[in-house]
């Protein structure tokens, strides 16, 4: 059915929402949101870690008479690290879902899985970093 030949807006909406392009657009929107959250959490973590290397900022926190400032700052680093790691795993999951839903039973999906295995799953450094992330998130 050609959507342009029908003037019923509800039928047009139904046709659009059942299209493959619409479904892909929804998946990419979720992926875009995940990337935005990941990127903002990265920037937040980077800023607080950069701040922690500034002597003018950190030296007053090391006053042994009042550890509350330092403890609060360390808790904030922990919170930002947790958010960054959670956002990273969400982005990985959403990326995987987009590939699986968009390219199901397609040669690209097989190629993608092969590349993921070669680049990440087989790489000892990546396994060292990615495997404990969920454990770290739960402990933070």
3D structure, described in words:
The chain is mostly helical and 140 residues long. It has one domain (9-139). Helix content is 79%, strand content 0%. It has seven helices and no strands. It has helices at residues 9-17, 20-52, 55-58, 68-102, 107-121, 124-130, 133-139. α2 (20-52) runs antiparallel to α4 and α4 (68-102) crosses α7 (133-139).
**In percent, how much strand structure appears in the residues?**
under 5%
Termini separation:
54 Å
Overall geometry: elongated
| Helix content estimate | over 70%
By DSSP (H or I, 4+ residues per run), the number of helices equals 7
Low-confidence stretches: none
The count of strands amounts to: 0
The helix-and-strand class reads mainly alpha
Main beta sheet: none
Spatial extent as radius of gyration: 23 Å
Number of spatially distinct domains? 1
Question: What number is the mean pLDDT?
Answer: 85
Note the run of SSEs as H and E: HHHHHHH
In short:
The protein contains seven helices and no strands. With 140 residues, it is mainly α.
Topology of helices and strands:
Layout: H1 9-17, H2 20-52, H3 55-58, H4 68-102, H5 107-121, H6 124-130, H7 133-139
Helix pairs in contact: 2-4, 4-7
Describe the structure using short key phrases.
mainly alpha, 79% helix, 0% strand, 140 residues, 7 helices
């Amino acid at each position: 059915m050609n959507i342009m030949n029908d003037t019923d807006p509800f039928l047009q909406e139904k046709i659009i929402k059942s299209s493959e392009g619409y479904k892909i657009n929804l998946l990419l929107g979720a992926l875009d949101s995940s990337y935005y959250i990941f990127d903002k959490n990265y920037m937040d973590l980077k800023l607080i870690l950069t701040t922690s290397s500034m002597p003018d900022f950190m030296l007053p926190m090391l006053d042994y008479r009042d550890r509350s400032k330092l403890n609060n700052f360390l808790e904030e680093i922990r919170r930002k690290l947790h958010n960054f790691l959670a956002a990273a795993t969400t982005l990985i999951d959403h990326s995987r879902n987009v590939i699986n839903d968009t390219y199901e039973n397609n040669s690209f999906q097989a190629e993608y899985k092969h590349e993921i295995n070669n680049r990440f799953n087989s790489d000892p450094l990546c396994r060292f970093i990615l495997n404990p992330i969920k454990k770290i998130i739960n402990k933070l």
